[in-house]
Amino acid sequence: MDIKEVEALIVNTLEDSKGRDIQVMDVKGISSFADLMVVATGTSTTHVKSLGAHVEKAFKDAGEQPLGVEAGPQPDWVLVDLGNAIVHVMTEGARAHYALEKLWDVKSQAAAEVEAE
């Protein structure tokens, strides 16, 4: 499965499962462990856990076994490692706290540094 197919399956699965604010980030130039990172929001810990399970199942059904899924018993964050793509599903509170989009937005950080000089 190429990276565009991986992205499409992730996004479609999250949309079908009512994931909110789905953001896809191309991190291949700044990450040694993945080419793609996807962040989505669930409305509750139950929804977050369900979204992660749906992504895991979609890839298993497509013959692509995830490398790992990390979540606690009442997760506010579920991580699905698909090898070349990482999926983060979080509650609104966890997403605001960790701000992964800002952490991985190197282009904006670089532009801000240039402006500051």
From TrEMBL:
It is found in: Cytoplasm. It comes from the Bacteria. Keywords: Cytoplasm, Repressor, Translation regulation. InterPro entries: Iojap/RsfS/C7orf30, NT_sf. It holds the Pfam family RsfS. Belongs to the Iojap/RsfS family. PANTHER family: IOJAP SUPERFAMILY ORTHOLOG, MITOCHONDRIAL ASSEMBLY OF RIBOSOMAL LARGE SUBUNIT PROTEIN 1. Functions as a ribosomal silencing factor. Interacts with ribosomal protein uL14 (rplN), blocking formation of intersubunit bridge B8. Prevents association of the 30S and 50S ribosomal subunits and the formation of functional ribosomes, thus repressing translation. Interacts with ribosomal protein uL14 (rplN). This is Ribosomal silencing factor RsfS. It comes from Thiomicrorhabdus lithotrophica. The gene is rsfS.
